[in-house]
Write a structure and sequence with these properties.
Number of strands: 5
Structural class: alpha+beta
Distance between the termini: 128 Å
Largest sheet: 5 strands, antiparallel
Number of helices: 1
Radius of gyration: 33 Å
Helix content: 25-40%
Protein backbone atom coordinates (compact mmCIF):
# COMPACT_ATOMS: atom_id res chain seq x y z
CA UNK A 1 0.00 0.00 0.00
CA UNK A 2 1.50 3.28 -1.12
CA UNK A 3 1.29 6.22 1.24
CA UNK A 4 -0.67 9.26 0.02
CA UNK A 5 1.39 12.01 -1.56
CA UNK A 6 1.48 15.11 0.59
CA UNK A 7 0.00 18.29 -0.95
CA UNK A 8 2.46 21.21 -1.47
CA UNK A 9 1.18 24.74 -2.39
CA UNK A 10 4.47 25.40 -4.25
CA UNK A 11 3.61 22.67 -6.73
CA UNK A 12 0.22 24.21 -7.53
CA UNK A 13 0.56 26.27 -10.76
CA UNK A 14 -3.05 27.31 -11.04
CA UNK A 15 -3.32 31.05 -11.88
CA UNK A 16 0.38 31.43 -12.83
CA UNK A 17 -0.46 32.87 -16.27
CA UNK A 18 -2.72 35.51 -14.72
CA UNK A 19 -0.11 36.61 -12.21
CA UNK A 20 2.56 36.75 -14.93
CA UNK A 21 0.32 38.85 -17.16
CA UNK A 22 -0.36 41.27 -14.31
CA UNK A 23 3.35 41.65 -13.58
CA UNK A 24 4.12 42.34 -17.24
CA UNK A 25 1.24 44.81 -17.39
CA UNK A 26 2.63 46.71 -14.38
CA UNK A 27 6.09 46.78 -15.95
CA UNK A 28 4.72 48.07 -19.25
CA UNK A 29 2.74 50.73 -17.41
CA UNK A 30 5.83 51.92 -15.55
CA UNK A 31 7.85 52.00 -18.78
CA UNK A 32 5.08 53.90 -20.54
CA UNK A 33 4.83 56.50 -17.78
CA UNK A 34 8.61 56.93 -17.76
CA UNK A 35 8.71 57.35 -21.54
CA UNK A 36 5.88 59.88 -21.45
CA UNK A 37 7.61 61.88 -18.70
CA UNK A 38 10.88 61.82 -20.64
CA UNK A 39 9.15 63.06 -23.77
CA UNK A 40 7.43 65.84 -21.83
CA UNK A 41 10.70 66.95 -20.25
CA UNK A 42 12.50 66.90 -23.60
CA UNK A 43 9.71 69.01 -25.13
CA UNK A 44 9.97 71.53 -22.27
CA UNK A 45 13.76 71.70 -22.63
CA UNK A 46 13.46 72.22 -26.38
CA UNK A 47 10.86 74.97 -25.93
CA UNK A 48 12.96 76.65 -23.24
CA UNK A 49 16.05 76.60 -25.44
CA UNK A 50 14.07 78.02 -28.35
CA UNK A 51 12.78 80.84 -26.12
CA UNK A 52 16.28 81.64 -24.86
CA UNK A 53 17.57 81.83 -28.41
CA UNK A 54 14.65 84.02 -29.47
CA UNK A 55 15.30 86.36 -26.52
CA UNK A 56 19.00 86.54 -27.38
CA UNK A 57 18.31 87.41 -31.02
CA UNK A 58 15.79 90.05 -29.92
CA UNK A 59 18.41 91.57 -27.60
CA UNK A 60 20.95 91.50 -30.41
CA UNK A 61 18.47 93.32 -32.66
CA UNK A 62 18.16 95.92 -29.91
CA UNK A 63 21.94 96.40 -29.94
CA UNK A 64 21.93 97.04 -33.69
CA UNK A 65 19.03 99.49 -33.31
CA UNK A 66 20.76 101.24 -30.42
CA UNK A 67 24.03 101.60 -32.33
CA UNK A 68 22.24 103.44 -35.13
CA UNK A 69 20.37 105.73 -32.74
CA UNK A 70 23.33 106.81 -30.62
CA UNK A 71 25.70 107.09 -33.58
CA UNK A 72 23.21 109.46 -35.19
CA UNK A 73 23.11 111.42 -31.92
CA UNK A 74 26.93 111.59 -31.85
CA UNK A 75 27.03 112.71 -35.47
CA UNK A 76 24.39 115.38 -34.84
CA UNK A 77 26.26 116.68 -31.78
CA UNK A 78 29.52 116.78 -33.72
CA UNK A 79 27.87 118.79 -36.50
CA UNK A 80 26.57 121.33 -33.95
CA UNK A 81 29.42 121.63 -31.47
CA UNK A 82 32.39 119.70 -32.82
CA UNK A 83 32.30 117.40 -29.76
CA UNK A 84 33.67 113.95 -30.45
CA UNK A 85 33.16 112.21 -27.09
CA UNK A 86 30.15 110.27 -25.83
CA UNK A 87 28.87 112.92 -23.42
CA UNK A 88 25.84 113.50 -25.64
CA UNK A 89 24.82 109.88 -25.08
CA UNK A 90 25.39 109.99 -21.30
CA UNK A 91 22.60 112.43 -20.61
CA UNK A 92 18.90 112.30 -19.84
CA UNK A 93 18.43 115.77 -21.30
CA UNK A 94 18.01 114.21 -24.74
CA UNK A 95 14.46 113.85 -26.03
CA UNK A 96 12.93 110.56 -24.85
CA UNK A 97 16.03 109.48 -22.89
CA UNK A 98 15.54 108.29 -19.30
CA UNK A 99 18.07 107.98 -16.50
CA UNK A 100 18.06 104.50 -14.97
CA UNK A 101 20.15 102.76 -12.32
CA UNK A 102 20.83 99.45 -14.01
CA UNK A 103 23.15 97.17 -12.05
CA UNK A 104 25.37 94.64 -13.81
CA UNK A 105 28.09 92.30 -12.56
CA UNK A 106 30.65 95.00 -13.31
CA UNK A 107 28.85 98.17 -12.41
CA UNK A 108 25.86 99.73 -10.71
CA UNK A 109 26.44 103.10 -12.35
CA UNK A 110 23.75 105.21 -13.92
CA UNK A 111 22.53 104.10 -17.32
CA UNK A 112 20.59 106.08 -19.87
CA UNK A 113 17.70 104.42 -21.67
CA UNK A 114 17.68 105.39 -25.33
CA UNK A 115 15.13 102.84 -26.51
CA UNK A 116 12.48 101.76 -24.02
CA UNK A 117 10.22 98.73 -24.48
CA UNK A 118 10.41 98.71 -28.26
CA UNK A 119 7.99 96.05 -29.50
CA UNK A 120 8.95 93.33 -31.98
CA UNK A 121 5.40 92.48 -32.94
CA UNK A 122 3.77 90.26 -30.36
CA UNK A 123 6.92 88.21 -29.70
CA UNK A 124 9.20 90.42 -27.62
CA UNK A 125 10.19 93.88 -26.45
CA UNK A 126 13.67 95.27 -25.89
CA UNK A 127 15.25 98.07 -23.91
CA UNK A 128 18.57 99.67 -24.93
CA UNK A 129 20.73 101.56 -22.45
CA UNK A 130 24.07 103.35 -22.60
CA UNK A 131 26.45 103.94 -19.71
CA UNK A 132 29.99 105.16 -19.18
CA UNK A 133 32.68 102.56 -18.72
CA UNK A 134 34.99 102.58 -15.73
CA UNK A 135 37.34 105.31 -16.95
CA UNK A 136 38.42 106.40 -13.44
CA UNK A 137 36.83 109.83 -13.62
CA UNK A 138 33.96 108.95 -11.22
CA UNK A 139 31.50 110.87 -13.37
CA UNK A 140 28.76 108.90 -15.09
CA UNK A 141 27.93 111.91 -17.26
CA UNK A 142 31.47 112.49 -18.54
CA UNK A 143 33.21 110.27 -21.08
CA UNK A 144 36.95 110.57 -20.51
CA UNK A 145 38.29 107.83 -22.79
CA UNK A 146 35.86 107.69 -25.74
CA UNK A 147 34.47 104.31 -24.65
CA UNK A 148 30.94 103.50 -23.46
CA UNK A 149 28.87 100.37 -22.88
CA UNK A 150 25.68 99.67 -24.78
CA UNK A 151 23.28 97.18 -23.16
CA UNK A 152 20.18 95.59 -24.66
CA UNK A 153 17.67 93.60 -22.59
CA UNK A 154 14.93 91.70 -24.46
CA UNK A 155 11.88 90.09 -22.85
CA UNK A 156 9.52 87.60 -24.48
CA UNK A 157 5.80 87.47 -23.74
CA UNK A 158 6.31 84.38 -21.54
CA UNK A 159 8.84 86.22 -19.35
CA UNK A 160 12.00 84.75 -20.87
CA UNK A 161 14.69 87.41 -21.13
CA UNK A 162 18.25 87.80 -22.39
CA UNK A 163 20.82 90.56 -22.48
CA UNK A 164 23.64 91.60 -24.78
CA UNK A 165 26.27 94.17 -23.87
CA UNK A 166 29.01 95.62 -26.08
CA UNK A 167 31.64 98.33 -25.81
CA UNK A 168 31.65 101.19 -28.29
CA UNK A 169 34.74 103.25 -29.00
CA UNK A 170 34.90 106.65 -30.65
CA UNK A 171 38.28 107.05 -32.33
CA UNK A 172 37.84 110.75 -33.08
CA UNK A 173 39.73 113.00 -30.68
CA UNK A 174 40.33 116.12 -32.78
CA UNK A 175 39.44 117.70 -36.09
CA UNK A 176 36.58 116.22 -38.06
CA UNK A 177 34.95 112.84 -37.75
CA UNK A 178 36.58 110.01 -39.67
CA UNK A 179 34.86 107.50 -41.89
CA UNK A 180 34.32 106.69 -45.55
CA UNK A 181 31.70 107.63 -48.08
CA UNK A 182 30.36 104.21 -49.17
CA UNK A 183 27.33 102.82 -47.34
CA UNK A 184 28.16 99.78 -45.28
CA UNK A 185 26.38 96.69 -46.58
CA UNK A 186 24.88 98.49 -49.56
CA UNK A 187 26.21 98.82 -53.08
CA UNK A 188 25.63 101.25 -55.89
CA UNK A 189 22.19 99.77 -56.48
CA UNK A 190 21.23 100.18 -52.78
CA UNK A 191 20.08 96.57 -52.92
CA UNK A 192 22.64 94.78 -50.68
CA UNK A 193 23.54 92.74 -53.78
CA UNK A 194 25.68 95.03 -55.95
CA UNK A 195 29.25 96.09 -55.19
CA UNK A 196 30.11 99.41 -53.60
CA UNK A 197 30.21 102.24 -56.11
CA UNK A 198 33.68 103.30 -54.96
CA UNK A 199 35.93 100.44 -53.94
CA UNK A 200 38.30 101.30 -51.09
CA UNK A 201 41.90 101.09 -52.26
CA UNK A 202 43.65 103.62 -50.03
CA UNK A 203 43.79 102.46 -46.41
CA UNK A 204 45.95 105.32 -45.16
CA UNK A 205 44.42 106.71 -41.93
CA UNK A 206 42.57 109.97 -42.53
CA UNK A 207 42.53 112.92 -40.18
CA UNK A 208 39.25 114.36 -41.44
CA UNK A 209 36.44 114.04 -43.94
CA UNK A 210 33.42 116.13 -44.76
CA UNK A 211 30.45 114.96 -42.66
CA UNK A 212 27.90 116.76 -44.88
Amino acid sequence: MNPKKKYSPLENQDGFALISAMIFLVLLTVIGIAANNTGTIETMISASEKNRQSAFFAADAGIEHGKIVIMNALKSEFAKTGATDWDVVLSDSQSGVESYNYKTDDSDEESFIWINNRSMGSAATYKVMARDNDDDDDDVFDDADNIIYLTSIATLTDGTFAGVEIGLSSTVDSGSATGYSAQAGSGSGKSYKSDDANTMTDFTPQTSIDMN
